[in-house]
């Protein structure tokens, strides 16, 4: 049990979470608390379960058949795996950014307006406000404001990823899950995403999966180290990278394996 | 030994090549026969006029219009049903569920049923059962309006025949919609249906269109299903209602060749009608190929 002694209110609390694909166990008895308005980084070698863990938080694993889950994931003290929880409502509160930017084959405007529209916002003025506001918050507005009718595919990779962030912000979530959001981007575009994460954590609780140790060290407040489906260590990022409690963690963050 | 092997090799290459060339020659020969035979008759008036003088002269306009109406109503009935089935099979049904397997079995069986069986089914089900039922309800069976072959029942029968084509095309198109787009939509809190409606279907329109075009080209070339369900020997005017009978190109060729008062005198008309029918089907097939190429290009790109 990794507890942070209530330094900040916990937005997400995971209790004894285990997950299996068929007979193959992918996550084993994970428990941790993620504080609100902080960035939590999930690190670990490929196949360690960090992305699977991320996807349990907004129940995206539900889409894969043959998955069984035990334990609890509490978002604002409500177990998201409870029968009474509406998964559609959950995903509106817990947004997700994917590894490969995946804008819809629509205009910039329609991409950002997608979420509000499916939530029933029809008023053009209101939609324009939301689109402008979220594009500003995702630091894309100045680059695209001249032509919002342009296809999202006309944007660069980094711009597309920031568009996907704007699209996620437009449904007004509290939590943002990011699955290696910058792994396909060049260093300059990556830096922009990282700056953006720093800005966004003022308003959102962010959980980010990353392969990049420096990135985890730069953007996150807390770091969880996963290995072979188990949570090895969870602590403040500063401690994980300077004086980790476990030898395995130290070996990984110093690049001795992984 | 080497000599024998060379002989075998040469005869395999020669034989397969000959077969391939043979097919091309056959197609060209058929086309040439039809074009030459129909050349003298083919004219603008032939396309736009009605048959005259006991169908030994004049044009084939009613048959062209009848064919167009037939495939149009068929598409209106068949494409939505096929699309909905394809959505169910690819989005909702788990591939191993007995219902999905049953539907797939039914679709495959439907695709293999001879066209004449559809014709007989159409007569028994649509004309006599459904049509008769409507007449009974409307007039107590005293007025026979729907219980006879007409445009609507022929189109419905044709829609059943072409349903498998639509289902397969649409399903193929739906499968090419990237999984990332669905995930993006669901992660934004869209329901499954919203995701299908706003993301999957708009990205499958080319496939739905291809399905429609393929169904139309298949339907335009079939005669057997409409033999007993709505095609007319000769009508001086175009159908004005769904309960009217109609002329059709394929059927027109058939009756010209077998039932005409003067088969020899109509030979030119037969060839020219066949030419019109072939051109129509070719155009439809080419547009389907073009649409498919566009879908495939997206899949790779």
Explain this structure to me?
The complex is a heterodimer of chains A (258) and B (301). Chain A has helices at residues 50-57, 87-93, 108-118, 124-137, 141-144, 157-169, 187-200, 213-219, 237-242, 247-253, and strands at residues 10-21, 24-35, 39-43, 67-75, 78-79, 94-97, 175-179, 205-209, 222-227, 230-236. Chain A is α/β, with parallel strands linked by helices. Residues 1-6 of chain A have low confidence and may be disordered. Chain A has one domain: P-loop containing nucleotide triphosphate hydrolases (Rossmann fold), CATH 3.40.50.300. Chain A contains 10 helices and 10 strands. In chain A, α7 links the parallel β7 (175-179) and β8 (205-209). Chain A has a 6-stranded mixed β-sheet with strand order 6-7-8-3-9-10, sandwiched between helices. Chain B is mainly α and 301 residues long. Chain B has one domain (40-300): MetI-like fold (Orthogonal Bundle). Helices cover 74% and strands 1% of the residues of chain B. Chain B starts with a helix and ends with a helix. The model of chain B has no long low-confidence stretch (mean pLDDT 88). The A-B interface holds A 58, 60, 63, 65, 88-92, 95-96, 98, 100, 102-105, 114-115, 117-119, 164, 167-168, 171 and B 94, 178, 180-181, 183-191, 194, 198-199, 203.
User: CATH first level of chain A: which class?
Assistant: Alpha Beta
Shape descriptor of chain B reads globular
Q: Please report the total strand number of chain A as a whole number.
A: 10
**Assigned CATH architecture of chain A:** 3-Layer(aba) Sandwich
As residue ranges, the low-confidence spans of chain A are 1-6
The poorly predicted ranges of chain B are none
Q: Structural class of the secondary elements of chain A?
A: alpha/beta
- Return the domain count of chain A: 1
């Amino acid at each position: 049990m990794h507890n942070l002694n209530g330094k900040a209110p916990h937005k997400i609390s995971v209790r004894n979470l285990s997950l299996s694909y068929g007979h193959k166990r992918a996550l084993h008895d994970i428990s941790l608390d993620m504080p609100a308005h902080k960035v939590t980084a999930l690190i670990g070698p490929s196949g360690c379960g960090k992305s699977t863990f991320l996807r349990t938080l907004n129940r995206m694993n539900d889409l894969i058949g043959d998955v069984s889950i035990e334990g609890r994931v509490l978002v604002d003290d409500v177990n998201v795996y409870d029968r009474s929880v509406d998964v559609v409502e959950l995903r509106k509160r817990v947004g997700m950014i994917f590894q490969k930017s995946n804008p819809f084959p629509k205009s910039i405007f329609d991409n950002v307006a997608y979420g509000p529209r499916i939530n029933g916002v029809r008023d053009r003025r209101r939609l324009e406000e939301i689109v402008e506001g979220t594009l500003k918050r995702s630091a894309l507005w100045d680059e695209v404001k001249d032509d919002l009718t342009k296809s999202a595919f006309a944007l660069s990779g980094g711009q597309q990823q920031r568009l996907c962030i704007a699209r996620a912000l437009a449904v007004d979530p509290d939590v943002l899950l990011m699955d290696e959001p910058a792994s396909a981007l060049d260093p300059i575009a990556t830096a922009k995403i990282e700056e953006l994460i720093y800005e966004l954590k003022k308003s959102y609780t962010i959980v980010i999966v990353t392969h990049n140790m420096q990135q985890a060290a730069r953007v996150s407040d807390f770091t969880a180290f996963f290995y072979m489906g188990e949570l090895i260590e969870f602590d403040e990022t500063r401690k994980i990278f300077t004086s980790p409690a476990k030898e395995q963690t130290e070996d990984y963050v110093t690049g001795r394996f992984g | 030994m080497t000599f024998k092997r060379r002989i075998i090799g040469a005869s395999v290459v020669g034989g397969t090549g000959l077969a391939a060339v043979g097919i091309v020659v056959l197609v060209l020969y058929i086309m040439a026969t039809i074009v030459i035979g129909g050349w003298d008759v083919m004219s603008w008036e032939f396309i736009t006029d009605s048959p005259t003088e006991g169908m030994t002269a004049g044009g084939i306009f009613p048959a062209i219009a009848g064919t167009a109406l037939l495939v149009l109503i068929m598409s209106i009935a068949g494409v939505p049903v096929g699309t909905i089935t394809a959505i169910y099979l690819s989005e909702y049904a788990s591939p191993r569920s007995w219902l999905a397997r049953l539907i797939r079995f039914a679709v495959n069986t439907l695709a293999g049923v001879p066209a004449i069986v559809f014709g007989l089914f159409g007569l028994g089900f649509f004309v006599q059962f459904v049509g008769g039922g409507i007449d009974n309800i409307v007039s107590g069976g005293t007025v026979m309006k729907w219980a006879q072959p007409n445009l609507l029942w022929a189109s419905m029968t044709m829609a059943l025949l072409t349903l498998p084509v639509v289902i397969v095309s649409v399903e193929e198109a739906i499968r090419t919609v990237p999984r990332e787009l669905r995930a993006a939509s669901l992660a934004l809190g869209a329901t499954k249906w919203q995701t299908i409606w706003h993301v999957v279907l708009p990205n499958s329109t080319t496939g739905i269109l291809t399905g429609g075009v393929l169904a139309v080209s298949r339907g335009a070339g079939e005669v057997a299903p409409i033999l007993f369900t709505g095609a007319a020997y000769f009508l001086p005017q175009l159908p004005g209602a769904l309960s009217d009978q109609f002329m059709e190109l394929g059927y027109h060729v058939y009756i010209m060749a077998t039932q005409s008062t003067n088969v020899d005198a109509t030979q030119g008309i037969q060839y020219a009608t066949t030419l019109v029918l072939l051109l129509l089907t070719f155009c439809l097939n080419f547009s389907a190929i073009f649409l498919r190429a566009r879908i495939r290009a997206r899949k790779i790109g």
